[in-house]
Queue: 2 jobs
Job 1
Amino acid sequence: MAQHTLEVLVENSPGVLARVAGLFSRRAYNIERLTVGPTANPEVSQMDIVVSVEGHALEQVIAQLDKLINVISIKEIKQESAPEVHDTQPDYQN
Amino acid sequence: MSQVTGAQSLVNSLEAAGVDVMFGIPGGAILPAYDPIFDSKIRHILVRHEQGAGHAATGYAQVTGRVGVCIATSGPGATNLVTPLADAAMDSVPMVAITGQVPSLAIGTDAFQEADIRGITMPFAKHNYLITDPADIPRAIAEAFHIASTGRPGPVLVDIAKDALQKMTDFKYPTSVNLKGYQPRLEPNAQAIADAAALITQSSKPIFYVGGGVIKADAHRELLEIANLLGAPVVTTLMARGAFPDSHPLHLGMPGMHGTVAAVTALQKADLLITLGARFDDRVTGKLSTFAQNAKVIHCDVDPAEIHKNRFADVPVIGDLKHTLQALIPELRAALKKHQPDLSEWLRQMNSLKSSYPLGYDQPADGSLSPQYVIERLGKISGPDTIFTSGVGQHQMWAAQFISYENPRTWLNSGGLGTMGYAVPAAMGAKVGAPDTTVWAIDGDGCFQMTNQELVTCALNNIPVKIAIINNESLGMVRQWQTLFYEGRYSNTSLDSKRVPNFPMLAEAMGCVGLSCERPEDVDATIEKAMSINDQPVVVDFRVHRDAMVWPMVAAGTSNDDIMIARETAPDWDSQEL
């Protein structure tokens, strides 16, 4: 399965790590790596999440993550290319 | 600004959010809130179990379209709300639950009546809060109501530490809510609407696959308009019964595990599913890889995460369904002027199935009472303005099948979670939300024994609901599966007796009128007697035949193509030109 790196900005509020980790657990998505750190804005934290999924499953992961109220934005970091930005309303139009 | 307690701030916030009724039970941690509740204009209905409060809030919400509110204390009070919260999440019901929490300094110490309800509800609540600072209460309440009622509706829990309720604070209710991570998209993409209209005109076998989202979005009028415009058949899922009139000639009925042959087959044979607020649930699709294999999919939903979740969508349309249909109707009308597909052969085939395989049942050979007959008569006598609620099991499926629903918000059941015991408390909430409407709960004898305590609440609070117990002295649906799949080995599905408990006596003990009926010839008179009593809750014990089964049936995990109309009986496909 392909690995994808997601850069997720979240509100720096209690329980947000549990929300994200719990989502991956209950939807049976595999987390390869997860790091959490501060950003320049003290109200916002950054999570870098590496997941192993194929095809539309990645869109599902992103869409489900986006449903978490504390998740502000999600960016997929692509190797050797510009990051693909998934804003909080991912657009699936063809 | 004068200072108030956090508790007063909570009650002021609930009033500011427009709450007129809430269902709950006090206890230690929430006790400070109950003092200002005593003086509030909000009607508080004291239930007998917190689960009843939760389902009542759901019933109220589904009937009124407003946010249902329940309130409980910490620990067991809060954990008793878990089932209704999960239920509301699965069926997208707007609901706010307020719970007391142990004092903030005691959190994490395994204090008396401490439970991490925020952690417990995290997997399914749309969002939740743990408030330890009274200054945060108004914002949390405003956000909770906003989140619960917008986008895809759902349950939000606000857990408030006892000391936050006791401390003094300034009350200022926010005039607007701005959540960086929550901006539901309501307006559909114009290109998606154009693509959808184009795909529809290219289709020769389109079908409207209608889910509960149509009712949530109040889009039933738009649905009627677009269905008439295109002239394509319509199926309404268990959550969508009432979204489209059952009497409409384009309506093929309910699809799914116990759907009509016409509805199930139409989805299988269609070349286009116009999916409106439905989510390709396994009870509708059967074995997913064999579901509607030749169909393209237009998927209209307010929740982007439903797109491609179970089924790839050729044209996803994300947005509020009312807005979506309001945009799609003129687009489709214009497209149809250029190219009007001929759907007559498709309609002829589906109408042939509809007339060849209507829903039906056999009367028991021994002259005893048929459960389907009871439910059918209830629907006929009480009429299409009645609100029906149900529990979960055979009686639920029969109530979905044999009652004709003409209006939205008249059929309430636990579709996603399948919560036995839903009917009585949901009926209570529905009756509070629609006091001038007749509310019938169709319940099983197994379900009724889980939540009937709320009839005491109904009797004492002038909430005259009517309960029809379909008493087959069994956990009927499980028994049906044992009949079909476990060689009739009825392990723990017999409730053993139609006489214990004595339901009419139990009803009378709870302050209700108790009636019973066990002969087909008495059914109409008994229903009419129950209909004539409007100052007290009424419970009718219909003692029915035990071996009746729900048909048609698509066995779990099998293909919709393998639908059976009776035991070991498939439709006569050779006689149908499909």
Job 2
Amino acid sequence: MLSIKNLHAGIEGKEILNGINLQIKAGEVHAIMGPNGSGKSTLSSVLAGRKEYNVTEGEVRFNGKDLLEMSPEDRAREGLFLAFQYPVEIPGVSTINFLKTAINELRAYKKLPPMEAKYFLKLMKEKQALVELTTSLANRSVNEGFSGGEKKRNEVFQMAMLEPTLAILDETDSGLDIDALKIVANGVNKLRSKDRSFIVITHYQRLLEYIVPDFVHVLFNGKIVKSGGKELALELEAKGYDWVKKEIAAA
Amino acid sequence: MNVIEKMSSTEKLVSEFQRVKSSLKGFLSLREKAISEFERVGIPNRKNEEWKYSDASALFKSEFNVEGLKLKVGKHDIDKFLVPNLNASVVVLVNGIYSEELSSLENIPKGVVISSFAQALAEKPEIVATHFSKYADTTNDAFVALNTAFASDGVFISVPDNTIVKNPIHIINIISVGLPLVKGDKEGFLIQPRFLFIIGNNSELKIVESFDASSSQAKNVCNSVAEISIGEKSKVQYYKLQNDCTGVHLISSVNAHQQKESHFDTNTITLNGDWVRNNLNIVPDAEHCETHLNGLFITCGNQHVDNHTLLDHRKPNCESNQLYKGILDEKSIGIFNGKIFVRRDAQKTNAYQSSKNILLSDDATINTKPQLEIYADDVKCSHGSTTGQLNEDAMFYLRSRGLSENSARNLLLFAFAGDVIEEIQIEPLKIYLAELVNQRLKK
């Protein structure tokens, strides 16, 4: 599904990613962990198509297509979704209007007619329940005045509405208390399927107790320095990132 | 060079006045005074501080026919200018001349008079004399003076005490030459409608004014002046929609005088046009008045839209709110100049003003100048002005959900404009304008 080869990227001339290699197959959940400044958010930004980041080397193929050539909207239309670490507040734009536009543009891309209003509202209701979002919340402007927890739930709700094939969760656990974390993780788990893959970016092992990954990768200095199964996360939690840093230094 | 141009076009208009004055209906001494004030002040150019960014003298290079061209407009031609479900009384002016035939009045309560200004001049000279040229200042504003000198037609509305005019009055200005110019030596028309609205105590009136000049040519100038007298505890709403006005340069002056506990709400929306200057002069002249001034302008190409507001708080315990928003693209120019006076007697005044603008192109210009002059010591006043670009983070967020760049942009711009649209208190008009704005943003 996603194939990242020797990806080098940076911002304002500063190189942050130094040759990332990663293969993700349909239905897999990959966790990417790493200390601050290791390049986790840069990776998600590059994959989603933030134009401030420059790719200097390497390639990313998504379902066989060159992802880096695509506009952010085409990436979304091809099935990519980024759950933002800091979801943007957009006053005056209602969640309903925004999602209706998004869904219908995704459908137009697939040459499908616009979704019927009745079905759309039904779908909204159904997916909101997934993350325990109330109706009044969805009628408000996008993220405006939402608490940290509501914003993250709104991200997962949007994911559920747009039904991507690859979802990137960028530090979705940051700023969440344990109850909100469970709700968000629960929502994500319900969206897991054999056709949908996830990249879960996080500092902490805590989120991975609820969203259990198939693979764990450790990102350090812009490179994946260690990969393993879900037990790698536990090992990291116990030994800290210094353990990985020392291993690298020794090698 | 500028002085000579100013002199010549001003002089030409003064001599036109001398030529036609015997045909003007009454008020000759008032007109003579106005034309002499016009002559003294002259058509303003950039040297005049109030016209620094809008060189009116450039509009007056050609010669004008000052007598309106009577044009045949069919009743069905009006249909496309109507606002769906507004249920308004429709008043049509063709080149500034009131058309009895095209106008249709609905549900007019007893005692309410809606007529041509010409008819009011002829039949109600005493009432006209009480208010005509009492609120619009001819001493400093050349265009008010010019309009006053020539004023012969337009709209007259009088609402007695304790009367609610439920259906809005929709004034449609059709400006059109429609035919090859009759008089070959003159290039354009100078159209000068006059509006006089007198609202008694404890009454209500809603006015919507729109323009159609799309089939005309840009050498015409429409210089309109409105005077509105609002009685005690009365509520007046005035919506000005400048949508189809590409064929004319618009200069408009709206002058409202508020009495005790009255409300005046006005909304000026400029979407299409060429060169537009709106002056709003409002005097809450008694205690406990409330005033809301809102404006929205969306410009592109070489459009030039200038909004000047003046709020003169003279008495205590009044409140005013102003919100003006601009979205400017390509090489267009926008101006917002908002002046608030709080006189020494006007204690406990609350006056707020905000001007917010988005520039979509490097070549677009906005000049915004909020001015507060406060002479009272116990007041709450604030003004703010922001100019920026579209929020890049919001754009990326929307696009990352699959919205095209255009859809994302339109959604954000519509949200920005939405604050002004929300202030419209007539629901069918709000829906109509929201749709017009939406269409305009897609252009």
